[in-house]
Design a protein that fits this description.
- By secondary structure, the protein is mainly beta.
- About 0% of the residues lie in helices and about 40% in strands.
- It has strands at about 10-15, 35-40, 40-50, 55-60, 65-70, 75, 80-85, 95-100, 100-110, 135, 140.
Length: about 140
Amino acid sequence: MTANGNSCYAFLMWSDGVTTPTRTVPVIGTLTYSAMFAKALHWEVNWVSPRGWEHFLTEGYALPNTQVTVEADKVFEGDMVFYQWRDGGNDNPRTFTITQDTVFYALYTDGGMVGEDVIFMQEGDTLRAEGAEICTMGQHLI
């Protein structure tokens, strides 16, 4: 027999303490087994583009206080590079303990330019940088 939850509830254990959802039991007389479930917490991972646009990546459900490992693609859509999670952590994959419904944000940047490596210039500013590539998209980025 197998105890199947749904997206909102996850299997905890059988009434006799067995914690695997699928099990084989001998049929000897009248037996009663009850499957116990707990409300599952929802988690999802969104990626955030260099322009701040948020996009859904993946999702799942877990029991409270369960560790979930999430991973953001190192390079996404050809030229965007992962550099950190919104909370400042940059380990990838990353393991979180789920204590409530949670959304994780993976931040990406164009071609590896991140944080202090990005310089915004205004019209008329000059900069000398050997070996630097200047991209023009309304502002000058280095």
